[in-house]
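chain and backbone:
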Amino acid sequence: MQGDISNGINVLGNLGDGTSAPSNGVIRALNGRIGRVEVAGIIRGPGTSAVRVQANQGIGLVKAASIFGPISANASFCTGKIGRLETTNGPLSGTVACIAVEGTGLERGVSINGDLTSEFGIRSGGLREHFFVSGNITSTGKIDITQGGTILDDATHNGRITVGGSVAGEIRVDGAAGLKGQIITNANNTSGTWTGPVRIGPTGNQIVLDDGASQPYQAPYYAVLSSTLGGGAVGLVPYGLHKEDCEPSHAPDGGPNLYWASKAWPQSFGGQTRETFVIKHYGPVFAASSGPYLIERRKFAIAMCGSEPCAGQDLVWVDRTTMFDVYAPRSGSREVWVAMKNNIQGNPVEVDKNHAYRFSLVADSGVTRLQSDQTLVTTTPKPTVVGYPYEVKPLFFDLNQNLVADLGDVEMWMEEPADVDYSGQIDTEDLIRLIEVVGM
């Protein structure tokens, strides 16, 4: 047909007879758009010459038990989108080509109730809906977003990928910093693995996350920041703590990062913009019950009263959980916020930079209160979260907090000795090491 096929087409049996003959079971709108194609049985192939559903200006819906025959929504390199593609009881084993996955109403996204074993090609329009695979992306399967396309997740789009099992095939997002949504693997929380490369960015300036790579790109717990990828992340269930992405970043051996994020807290916590620990993960998390963290602190700049430390200081790790508010936004967020409670006047309290901080997960009968969200696990509890504790130790050499190690830090140490080498003891070794760093 040369124009649109605007009404639905229902096929009670199979579409195609399994041969490569192009006349056997083909639906075409060569200069138009196909509204809906629903097949009770199988859309059969084989071969790229046997394109079973073809349009220039897009396809609203293709639905079948399983799909083995190729589908093209942008034949002749036109601008056709796919609104929704669905297999109800089997794999997607036929190639798919479209400029974008973007639908309307209920006809949105991709739902493969089986494995993805073929290439799903998306061009510059990108993935703007949920791409769901209940099984695996096999070694022959591929999601290939080219020509600068992205995985877009914003106020009006829901671009993300969920794979119930393993990802052995490739996921490519050609757009620079193109991963703006979430990719979830092993969403069934069984034995799924992530061994296929996830490529982000154009050729020549591409980031490849892979289990065979070295850091900062080694999957599944890569170190590269989500902002470098485009704001999104790839998470293997159970999700891990993304230590480098946290604000401040995880620094168990001390770090120069003395900057805490400023976050506008919700009114349920008294509002206000507060200095906040932003604890980030590779996938969305939620607090199944209150109090997901044990929060400890230890002072390193010790106030002395004569020859002894003054009383009331946390000289070892001390539980100070009750001093903090904890907010887990949920709604697909990978973040948990932690801040000092407002004072009695309702005003924010800054984080005391003279302390190191440690956050550990609280568990009830072995089940952590902080759990992985947006998985395919239907029972409770949901999958746990791994990779803790999260620790922040401001750089001990910068005792006067002017962001450099200088003579002022030595003078500060003489007034308030500090355990700059993390030995657990305040002694002359700390002063010697500080002097070495300052260069005196």
